[in-house]
Amino acid sequence: MTAASTAPASTTPGGMLLPWADADGAPFWEYAGRHELRMQGCSACGRLRFPPRPCCPHCHSFDGEWTLMSGRGRIWSYVFPHPPLLPAYARLAPYNAVVVELAEDPRLRLVGNVVAIADGPLNGVPADRFRIGAPVRVCFHDMAEGVTVPRWLLEDR
Amino acid sequence: MPVKDVCAIKDVCAIAGIGQTRFSRSLDEPEKALACRAVLAALDDAGIDPSEVDAFASYTMEETDEVEVAKAIGAGDVTFFSKVGYGGGGSCATVAHLVAAVATGQASVGVAWRSRKRGSGIRPWTSTAVQLPTPAQWTRPFGLLRPADEIGMLARRYMHEYGATRDHLFNVALACRNRANQNPDAMMYERPLTREMYMTARWICEPLCLFDNCLETDGALACVVVPAERARDCRHKPVYIHCVAQGLPAQHHGMVNYWNDDPLTGPAWTAARHLWKNADFGPQEVDVAQIYDAFTPLIPLSLEGYGFCGRGEGAAFTEGGALEIGGRLPINTGGGGLSEAYVHGFNLITEGVKQLRGTSTAQVPDAATCLVTAGEGVPTSALLLRS
After folding, report:
1. What region holds the Thiolase C-terminal domain (chain B) (predicted)?
2. What is the 3-state secondary structure (H, E, C) of A39-99?
3. Does residue A8 carry a pLDDT above 80?
4. Predicted local confidence at residue B4, as pLDDT
5. Closest-approach residue (CA) in chain A for B138
6. Which of B18, B75, B157, B325 is deepest in the core (most CB within 10 A)?
7. Do the Cβ atoms of B260 and A86 come within 8 Å?
8. Would an 8 Å CB–CB cutoff place B160 in contact with chain A?
9. Whether residue A78 is found in the same domain as residue A111
10. Does residue A38 lie within any of the structural domains?
């Protein structure tokens, strides 16, 4: 673990896993705390990259910036985990986990959950509403004091 | 000094001995004892005294250090030791590292091994106190907890893009189970599988059901790598290590890879390019394959990656009994990770050796070439073996 990995707790009191940021990922989570979806980009060549890393794989610049995303995307894939799972997740199973490709660049993909409302449970949207390619938009859920994760709402069609 | 031929290791080394413990959901002995038993069995199989071992290779996830194995078995001076990362992606690489050491004169008798009590021990994904390093922060908080969840995501996408169905995944599970039913050492020896059982099985992670997942096994295996000329003086017919490769594709992200241009084009493609560039034969001349099968979808992906069929054709390849004995490409002839034992793929290496010795419990007639692969989707490795 890096020096930035000093999270006081690894789970919520209910047992849900909290993101454990490393130095490269910390800004993502800080912006999420402000309910902003921002992705790391290169200040020199302008290309976005994910997961975050110290330098640009294209031009090798170490100068980065965090670019605000529209929060729009599409479901790239999805699963419904069933037990055996960690107890907090088993209680919700089957719940959904999705990979969302962002509108700005479909190669930028985020793992997340589709929910009916931002603070709703991970099993709140019926399975038959999931399909690859479905449009989604971001929302934010405060998991714990100072810990916020992006989540996804199905776009009305 | 001129650059040496990239094929300088071709057929220079051979696997002279293999060893294994019993496979079970629960074995009494600790992992260290099981490791020593497997290593000693492999050396005995080769007819080589443990004092001659001077090289060791294993996985970074292996809990028993080479120091412990070396002093327990009575090895002499050890001049090469290596560990390979990325879980089951490192299986074939342990042998590859020994080949590199032996072929370059850094050592003369190498042992690779894996000992694991994954059946009775802990499931690694249940740890909440210490999260796995990057990219866990991008996956685990969202309930993508287990390898089955991570691969399930790729499986769903693969089924969507290329028209693969659960019947294709069943073909994989069935071929492995049928071979296990021929192998008295397999955990599923007396447990036949039917399509009805598969289609009505409980989900683990939709779209993957129970039978799409490998077994939870206690057990250990090992093999002995020596120069080819030495192997010819050993107890069994030598099995030559024709080519080896590791594979870490550009922009790949480790144990979970959703972030390069095409996450369905995994490390198998990278390892395969290197293997076939150096081999004297191609995929069409592979008689039998041992393909890493922690999860059934890894088989169609690997069939494509290693060039047995084209992009998107891996699922259709499994039709018509292609993976069974007598089919286009018999696979996992001991039962594989799905039905013999899951010990991070090491039983696929030893089964490859058995096929080329002609001693498999599901022998492919006159098998002379065998591909063995490591975990697909993670930084991987592969071996081409020949008799």
Report:
1. 261-379
2. EEEECCCCCEECCCCCCCCCCCCCCEEEEECCCEEEEEEEEEECCCCCHHHHCCCCCCEEE
3. no
4. 56
5. A111
6. B18
7. no
8. yes
9. yes
10. yes
Phi, psi of B383 (to 5 degrees): -130, 140
* DSSP-derived secondary structure letter, A17: B
Residues of chain B with Cβ-Cβ distance to A109 below 8 Å are: 258-259
B240 is catalytic: no
Residues A58 and A76 in one domain: no
Residues A64 and A108 in one domain: no
Q: What pLDDT is attached to residue A3?
A: 40
Locate the chain A residue with the closest alpha carbon to B133.
A1
Number of structural domains chain A divides into: 2
Examine the fold and report which residue of A10, A35, A68 is the final residue of a domain before the chain moves on: A68
ipTM of the complex model: 0.94
Q: Is the peptide bond before A83 cis (omega within 30 degrees of 0)?
A: no
Residue B128, min C-alpha distance to chain A (Å): 6
Average pLDDT of chain A to the nearest whole number = 93
Is A56 domain-assigned? yes
Is the model's pTM score more than 0.90?
Answer: yes
Look up the domain containing A43 and give its range. 19-68
Looking at the complex, report in whole angstroms how far the Cα of residue A141 sits from the nearest Cα belonging to chain B. Answer: 12
Task: Classify B13-121+219-226 by CATH class.
Answer: alpha beta
Indicate if A30 and A106 belong to the same structural domain: no
Query: Which of these is catalytic: B86, B198, B306, B342?
Result: B342
Q: Where are the domains of chain B?
A: 13-121+219-226
